[in-house]
Amino acid sequence: MPRVVPDQRSKFENEEFFRKLSRECEAFVATGTNLSLQFFPANLHGDQRQVPTREYVDFERETGKVHLKAPMILNGVCVIWRGWIDLQRLDGMGFLEYDDERAQHEDALAQAAFEEARRRTRDFEDRDRSHREDLEPMEVIQHHLRTAKTRVSAAFW
């Protein structure tokens, strides 16, 4: 199953969910959306987590605030959450934007997975067809043997 939908940009631009969250707002929670942001989670191979760069977590941009950037796939669309949190009040602002670069990468991965699945299906069908063709002469021989047995049996009755 692909991680992304076929036309990510269209979904991002046309669905009310994304339109609402693409406008800077004080709290995503007010829209019924709760995001758990993870920066550079450990990968499947067990490598250690990376320390996020200032591009993703910036404490120096503005005194008393941390500015955040978190890329993710949300509802099948590649997006980036951008925002800031006040370190004293623990409130802030944020919004989603479409991540065109990652979307193209994920689309390429999805296309490659689709092509691989199609290749495997074609290989399976070819093997199945070849197997059936190999069995057809055997079935013809078995049919003739059954017919011959029937004739021999009928001759003895």
TrEMBL record:
<comment type="similarity">
    <text>Belongs to the CBF-beta family.</text>
</comment>
<dbReference type="InterPro" id="IPR036552">
    <property type="entry name" value="CBF_bsu_sf"/>
</dbReference>
<protein>
    <submittedName>
        <fullName>Core-binding factor subunit beta</fullName>
    </submittedName>
</protein>
<keyword id="KW-0539">Nucleus</keyword>
<dbReference type="GO" id="GO:0043565">
    <property type="term" value="F:sequence-specific DNA binding"/>
</dbReference>
<dbReference type="GO" id="GO:0006357">
    <property type="term" value="P:regulation of transcription by RNA polymerase II"/>
</dbReference>
<dbReference type="GO" id="GO:0003713">
    <property type="term" value="F:transcription coactivator activity"/>
</dbReference>
<dbReference type="GO" id="GO:0016513">
    <property type="term" value="C:core-binding factor complex"/>
</dbReference>
<dbReference type="Pfam" id="PF02312">
    <property type="entry name" value="CBF_beta"/>
</dbReference>
<dbReference type="InterPro" id="IPR003417">
    <property type="entry name" value="CBF_beta"/>
</dbReference>
